[in-house]
Amino acid sequence: MSDRCVSKQTLQRLPAYLNYLRGPGKGLKKHVSATMIAEALGLNDVVVRKDLASVSSSGRPKVGYVRSELIRELEKFLGYDNSQDAVLVGAGKLGQALMAYSGFPQYGLNILAGFDSDPRLEGAEVAGKKILAMDKLPGLCRRVGVHIGIITVPGEHAQAVCDQLIDSGILAVWNFANAHLSVPEGILVQNENMAVSLALLSNHLKEVFSTK
Amino acid sequence: MSDRCVSKQTLQRLPAYLNYLRGPGKGLKKHVSATMIAEALGLNDVVVRKDLASVSSSGRPKVGYVRSELIRELEKFLGYDNSQDAVLVGAGKLGQALMAYSGFPQYGLNILAGFDSDPRLEGAEVAGKKILAMDKLPGLCRRVGVHIGIITVPGEHAQAVCDQLIDSGILAVWNFANAHLSVPEGILVQNENMAVSLALLSNHLKEVFSTK
DNA sequence: TAGATTGTTAATCGATTAACAATC
DNA sequence: TAGATTGTTAATCGATTAACAATC
């Protein structure tokens, strides 16, 4: 494997490049240059070039990259090409919205089923996906070999759910709950933390108004 | 104002501190130390101390911080204490889930109304909030003085919606669409980008399995 | 050949960490 | 006084940027 160890910053920018490359077909030239991408996304061109170098080796001086080739390389690197199974715990409004979201398959995520402790939800279906009782969780995860768990329960239950997921063999947790999760070494917690985003928004407004 | 210019990294950690401080009431001592927080959250204690120093001046050697005081200072700094109005564009599944989410008020966000171009949604209500036609957007924003816009439309429409929001006086955009948004100087775009999160999750799993 | 573009090596910048002084 | 803790100043580390060499 040549594609190991990319910095987190780089990894966060790669999806934006892919997005741009896939983007509006107008002016679909066969080749793209790092400079073009950088300009469109408001980044430094050397950053883009360096990022792309860690993903692709198809860039050629004077020519640039072949768009379609670069797209494929990015998709492969980001794991969008082979789907990963996931389970979701907490089938409330947000959970159901995620279960129904049709965009995940194209990012290589396949939510197998939802789980909820509320017996009234048991057996219900969202977008063709079953909502199951919590006691079914370990069995399914083990059997199918699921490694991604999505947490959309209220904050106060998040840690308990997280522990159950890890007991069931989950290696990466996507946490939508507003709680800090403690996990053993080797488990990744990716926080989709609304509170952080809101803090950044609010801080921006504060700055805008304080300099006026 | 003493509380200007905190680094982005710091700003992203502050909500986690607040969360921890508010957290499970067990062992609610009156005082907390930076070391305690750092340990609980898996951070370096100097980082925590430095972050807190930029928000609070109530830390006392040997004693630490008064928990309740620190909570109030963090809430104030993060703008969670005085609510900001927001509009949401794109009242699909995700949009409705956000409109219905009851946790936002405690983070100082108040979604006034949803907007959608689909006439069938016009007039509908979600959690007591109206869904309105797009042509009502500028009027409402101007009249009430809304500065935050939330975008939950499909990626291909995101830029057009973003432009409309900015025309309506929006200064900060919370973007859930999978699209890069170009905005004029002085406007903040905060991306809640699922694609980025998924890339990080997938990369983690790749690393786990490649080192085995 | 000349120009555009890639990719690499060195310089700069900012954030984190380490060491230490101040203080209750 | 001694110990714990804050907060500051200096050292380290990593990422970004700048300069340049390689190449089609």
Automatic annotation (TrEMBL), chains A, B:
Residues engaged in binding NAD(+): G90, A91, G92, K93, L94, G95
Pfam families tied to this protein: CoA_binding, Put_DNA-bind_N
Record's subcellular location: Cytoplasm
Keywords for this protein: Cytoplasm, DNA-binding, NAD, Repressor, Transcription, Transcription regulation
GO molecular function, one term: DNA binding
DNA-binding region positions on the chain: 16-55
SMART domains per record: CoA_binding (SM00881)
NCBIfam families found in the cross-reference section: PRK05472.2-3, PRK05472.2-4, PRK05472.2-5
Family statement: Belongs to the transcriptional regulatory Rex family.
PANTHER family the record matches: REDOX-SENSING TRANSCRIPTIONAL REPRESSOR REX, REDOX-SENSING TRANSCRIPTIONAL REPRESSOR REX 1
Protein name, as recorded: Redox-sensing transcriptional repressor Rex
Gene source species: Acutalibacter muris
